[in-house]
Design a protein that fits this description.
Blueprint lengths: L10 E6 L8 E5 L2 E7 L5 E5 L13 E3 L2 E3 L6 E2 L5 E3 L17 E4 L2 E5 L23 E9 L3 H9 L15 H5 L3 E4 L3 E11 L3 H7 L5 E10 L3 E10 L9 E13 L2 E10 L6 H32 L13 H19 L9 H17 L1
Antiparallel strand pairs: 1-10, 2-3, 3-4, 5-6, 6-7, 7-8, 9-10, 11-17, 12-13, 13-14, 14-15, 15-16, 16-17
Helix pairs in contact: 1-5
Length: 367
């Protein structure tokens, strides 16, 4: 079955760097509301978007320097989650906190770790340097999907759908008929196609200027649990050398919002026509449309799946499903491992128990 839960001890794209500013950004991730902002020094911050006093979203409050003031009763929280002010109270125990989340910013994305902070190893973040690297020009976007994230994971590993869903933009009939190779380990899947001769799809005619048959390669890389790099290379058919070879790197951050809704953070980088701003605008609009088609397909599938839950409709697997099914097994194995270790749902917040203990003590005094 398609997973509708995702591991917490993992890095997820939380935002494009440009999305996080001194203005509050509220975004749900893995079923939790998260408040993002930047300190005066420019560092990104992520706090749970709820005041533990009466659950008021902190994003409805005010930013006072680097601290967040709840808009309901004025409790104030530092970037590390510690409460620094309770109106009418002189001292505040260090244990009174809202949850903060580890972040890592680099190469255009801000990543968030939703699980045990002690396990937040930034070496686990996949390479995505093309987003901001010299010699590349990048278009970006953020879109939303009313379907579970795994549907996009599998969509991006089965590029045979380009021959049908995207035939008028990035696809051609030969793609679905070309054999694939699948490589994988416990955290990574690669699905590759080499097409020695194929027609140049309309999108690539526009962006590369090649209006003839091409030699094309595709590599779809999945980094569990929710990040993809799609590499497309093409050059005119018959070229002996690579002088006219064009490279495009598409990055996909597939971040679960809830069980059945998803954030889609994408970027498309190219190593040609670097200064053509009009072309970058065309890429941005075209890719947004293509991704919209993928989202529409996944939402339709989600509607069917939901009608069968908690059972599951019959499904036929074919040869090109090797990569997608492998990704499904990897995500499930990560979930099984966390459950065996006792990691279930959102992590424990010490402040919640402090609040509960205080409430119980108050109740006892009244009695």
């Amino acid at each position: 079955m398609y997973p509708d839960e995702f591991p917490r001890n993992a890095w997820y794209v939380a935002a494009h760097s440009s999305e996080i500013t001194r203005e509050f950004l509220s975004r749900w991730i893995l079923g939790d509301p998260i408040l993002f902002y930047r300190t005066e020094a420019g560092e990104p911050v992520a706090l749970v978007d709820r005041c533990i006093h009466r659950q008021m979203p902190l994003s409805m409050g005010n930013l006072r320097g680097d601290r967040v003031e709840c808009g309901y009763h004025g409790l104030t929280w530092a970037p590390d989650g510690k409460c620094t002010r309770i109106p009418g109270r002189a001292t505040i125990p260090d244990s009174v906190r809202v949850q903060s989340f580890p972040l890592h910013e680099g190469s255009g994305f801000v990543w968030i770790w939703m699980g045990d902070p002690e396990k937040a190893d930034t070496s686990l973040i996949p390479d995505h340097h093309w987003y901001t690297a010299d010699g590349w020009t990048t278009a970006t976007g953020t879109q939303h999907m009313n379907a579970r994230a795994q549907l996009l994971n599998e969509n991006l590993l089965d590029l045979s759908h380009l021959s049908f869903l995207h035939l008028t933009s990035i696809g051609s009939p030969e793609i679905a008929e070309t054999a694939v190779t699948v490589e994988s380990d416990d955290t990574w899947v690669r699905v590759s196609r080499h097409m020695p001769r194929t027609v140049c799809p309309p999108y690539y005619v526009k962006v590369t200027g090649i209006d003839s048959d091409i030699e094309r390669e595709q590599h779809a890389d999945f980094f569990a649990p929710a990040f993809h790099t799609t590499t497309t290379t093409l050059k005119p058919y018959g070229d002996a050398g690579d002088e006219r070879k064009c490279h495009q790197k598409t990055l996909h951050g597939i971040t679960p919002e809830t069980r059945t809704t998803t954030h889609y953070f994408w970027s498309v980088s190219r190593d040609f026509a670097l200064d053509d701003e009009e072309l970058t605008g065309y890429v941005s609009n075209s890719v947004s449309t293509v991704i919209g088609q993928d989202i529409e397909a996944c939402e339709a599938i989600e509607h069917i799946i939901a009608a069968w839950e908690p059972s599951y409709p019959e499904e036929l697997n074919i040869k090109v499903d090797g990569g997608p099914l492998r990704s499904r097994k990897i995500v499930q194995a990560m979930l099984d491992k966390e459950r065996a270790e006792g990691v279930v749902g959102r992590p424990h917040n010490p402040s919640d128990s402090v609040a509960r203990a205080a409430a119980e003590a108050s109740t006892r005094r009244r009695q």
